[in-house]
Amino acid sequence: QVQLVESGGGLVQAGASLRLSCVASRMPVRMYAMGWFRQAPGKEREVVASISYSGSDTYYADSVKGRFTISRDNARQTVTLQMNRLEPEDTAVYYCATRDLWSAYGCSDVWGPVYYGMDYWGKGTLVTVSS
Known about the structure:
Shape: globular
Structural class: mainly beta
Number of strands: 11
Order of helices and strands: EEEEEEEEEEE
Largest sheet: 7 strands, mixed
Radius of gyration: 14 Å
Distance between the termini: 40 Å
Oligomer: single chain
């Protein structure tokens, strides 16, 4: 069973930075596009950023462009979200997710803002930004 484990969340003040990591196991990360999602209280889950299997293509939500950077280290089975200049509006649970290799929606290209058929999710890591 594929496993995704997020880490790096915490409580910070506005303007600070955090670095989230997602470590994947039981899957060859190099074959998969990966993405970060977030869900704030009372809001729907949204795509924050995604990265293609090769790392050559990325997507960012408008709200995080210029502040967040997604990257991947396939050798370490890790996808990272560097978050700078955090704002209170970034407060949410952040999730790492991907699709199955045989997904009808494909598993190699970026997605966002619309997304379909995510097959594997981590349990999430909480980011709280105080003003």
